[in-house]
Design goal:
- The complex is a heterodimer of chains A (294) and B (268).
- With 294 residues, chain A is mostly helical.
- Chain A has 15 helices and two strands.
- Chain A has two domains: 1-43, no CATH class; 61-290, MetI-like (MetI-like fold).
- Helix content of chain A is 77%, strand content 1%.
- The two termini of chain A are 44 Å apart.
- Chain B is mostly helical.
- Helices cover 74% and strands 0% of the residues of chain B.
- Chain B has helices at residues 4-28, 45-50, 54-87, 93-101, 108-121, 128-152, 156-164, 169-198, 201-206, 213-220, 227-258.
- Chain B starts with a helix and ends in a 10-residue tail after the last helix.
- The mean pLDDT of chain B is 84.
- The chains are: A mainly alpha (294), B mainly alpha (268).
- The interface between A and B is large, with 89 and 92 residues.
């Protein structure tokens, strides 16, 4: 029969095999990720009734969200904290990636990367809590400084933005190191020799050859640190003492204790749109470094 | 060129990364209820307190069920996607893979909140099962990242040889492909297990009244009296993660060596 052979021809194509193989995973992602994200988007345009969501189109949630001074202040704080964390993390990470890529013997590289990633896989909550122990009023740093006699009264180092930034910079370190490392590894070492043979100094070779070629990794590192830190819930709660909430804490409050799901959704969508715009802007600014990349 | 300064910086940086982990056992064995210096003396009583705690036992059991199920499901889904991604090209591949890998960059709170709204909307009761649904979603991208390396370093001619020698598609996969990517699969199982065991936000939103290890730890951090025991628990968890990761790393390297690839190092 004709349709049978046609069916066989279709099922034998590479594209069909690819779709068939990827379909269980893709289906799961569509059901458990795409559909819920679409639902949140829809909810943000619905009305909140008592314990129920009224399916009527309204822009009120967004008007409420953006006219709320507290939301604007919290969003601003989240952006500043995430920006600061990203800057600190990437600046601290670049020399490490550079060291491992250029100065560590090839056979020892994976051992270094393993060492760098281990702390990342250990309990996130306990790591965050231990920063509270390190930075606390009678914590490790203060005890050490008091013991040596540098200071007389302990510093107040918790419950502020820098403490949140240090904790998050610690948590996201491997996320920044690995993409930069990968892009440094791809650099053809002959290019560096060429630069120096043509009379550039080491510094200039670094600035004019190494750094531009490493930029795709830096851009990836910035995005992979910036986007998730905006949504961090634990660190503002533990290190900020609950007094410096970020967007995630506000979303949680609307979603669970206050049970206003449409407003919570509108806050979540607003925050994600702002984050996405900033990320696109950042990629656009760096587009000349990304050209020619796959 | 040698830069001694850079090496020193790298060592200081490692110290910064490991500082919290070094402190953990110090306080776990410290005979004092306040987590601060100076230390009081040596005790193992905090470890003793862990046993005989019913809520903790339930949290451990829940976390184990969640982590094992999530690891198996995420790795299975990862095998499909990694195989499809590294072997076949098809229209829309970038978009589909992008969606599957999205949880890697999406803030977890967004994943948690959107799943919560949908699951409650479907009338589901929050339980261990709903946490598994969420954890599979966030573990799958990591599984794919690991399995991609395993599948793409696979020599395709080996499979073609098997087919030429009369094996079917399935028996080729079972006899040739599977053994070659097995180290990648084991590594992916262990990493997914570790991620799920440690995941807080999704469990916090989706577990309902069931405790998991991280949500239990989070609830106890408010009570200063409980902190020493949490430090002891943390020490056990860190040891467990390090053991699991070392095994995962061993299999990952063996997998690369087996398929003759070059080690580019590291997970992710």
């Amino acid at each position: 029969m004709d349709w049978k052979s046609r069916l066989r021809r279709v099922t034998r194509t590479e594209a069909f095999s690819g779709y068939a193989l990827v379909s269980p995973t893709a289906l799961y992602a569509i059901l458990m990720l795409a559909a819920p994200l679409a639902t949140i988007l829809a909810f943000s345009f619905f009305k909140d009734g008592y314990l129920v969501v009224v399916r009527e189109f309204t822009l009120q949630n967004y008007i409420d969200t953006w006219s709320d001074e507290i939301f604007r202040a919290i969003l601003m704080r989240s952006l500043i904290v995430s920006g600061l964390v990203t800057l600190v993390t990437v600046l601290l990470a670049f020399p490490i990636a550079y060291y491992v890529s250029f100065h560590v013997e090839a056979s020892k590289k994976s051992r270094w990367l393993f060492l760098i990633t281990i702390p990342f896989w250990t309990s996130y909550l306990i790591r965050v809590f231990l920063w509270k122990v390190i930075l606390g009023y009678n914590g490790v740093v203060n005890s050490a400084l008091l013991g040596v006699g540098i200071i007389d009264t302990p510093f107040q180092m918790l419950n502020n933005v820098p403490a949140i930034a240090i904790t998050l910079a610690h948590a996201y370190a491997p996320f920044a190191i690995l993409p930069i490392f990968v892009s440094l590894e791809k650099i053809d070492r002959a290019l560096l020799e060429a630069g120096q043979d043509l009379g550039e100094s080491k510094m200039m070779t670094f600035l004019r050859v190494t750094l531009p070629l490493a930029m795709p990794g830096v851009v990836a590192a910035v995005l992979i640190v910036f986007i998730p830190t905006i949504g961090d819930y634990v660190t503002p709660e533990l290190i900020g003492g609950g007094k410096l909430p970020m967007v995630a804490n506000m979303i949680q409050a609307q979603m669970l204790p206050l049970d206003n799901k449409p407003l919570g959704s509108a806050i979540a969508v607003s925050a994600m749109v702002v984050v996405a715009l900033i990320s696109f802007g950042f990629v656009f600014m760096n587009r000349r470094f990304l050209r020619g990349q796959k | 060129m040698k830069l001694p300064g850079l090496r020193l910086y790298a060592l200081v940086y490692l110290l910064f990364l490991y500082a919290p982990i070094f402190l953990l056992p110090i306080f776990a064995f410290n005979d004092g209820t306040i987590i601060a210096f100076p230390l009081k003396g040596f005790t193992t009583s905090w470890f003793g307190q862990m046993f005989g705690n019913d809520t903790l036992a339930r949290a451990v059991r829940n976390s184990m069920i969640i982590a094992v199920s999530s690891a198996v499901l995420a790795t299975t889904l990862g095998i499909f996607a990694a195989r499809a991604g590294s072997r076949f090209s098809f229209p829309g591949k970038g978009g589909i893979m992008g969606l599957i890998m999205l949880p890697l960059v999406l803030p977890e709170i967004i994943v948690a909140v959107s799943l919560l709204v949908v699951l409650l909307g479907m009338g589901m009761t929050l339980s261990v099962f709903t946490v598994i649904l969420g954890h599979v979603l966030i573990c799958t991208p990591y599984a794919i990242a690991i399995l991609n390396t395993a599948f793409s370093s696979l020599d395709r001619s080996l499979e073609e040889a098997a087919v030429d020698l009369g094996e079917t598609k399935w028996s080729t996969f079972r006899l040739i492909t599977l053994p070659l990517v097995m180290p990648g699969i084991i590594s992916s199982l262990l990493i997914s297990f570790t991620i799920s065991l440690d995941e807080f936000i999704i469990a916090f939103f989706l577990a309902g009244n069931e405790p998991t290890l991280p949500t239990y730890i989070f609830s106890q951090l408010r009570f200063p009296k409980q902190i020493p025991m949490i430090m002891a628990l943390g020490t056990c968890l860190v040891l467990l993660s390090i053991v699991l990761l070392t095994i995962a790393e061993y299999f990952r390297r063996r997998g690369i060596a087996r398929s003759g690839g070059k080690d580019t190092g590291g997970f992710l």
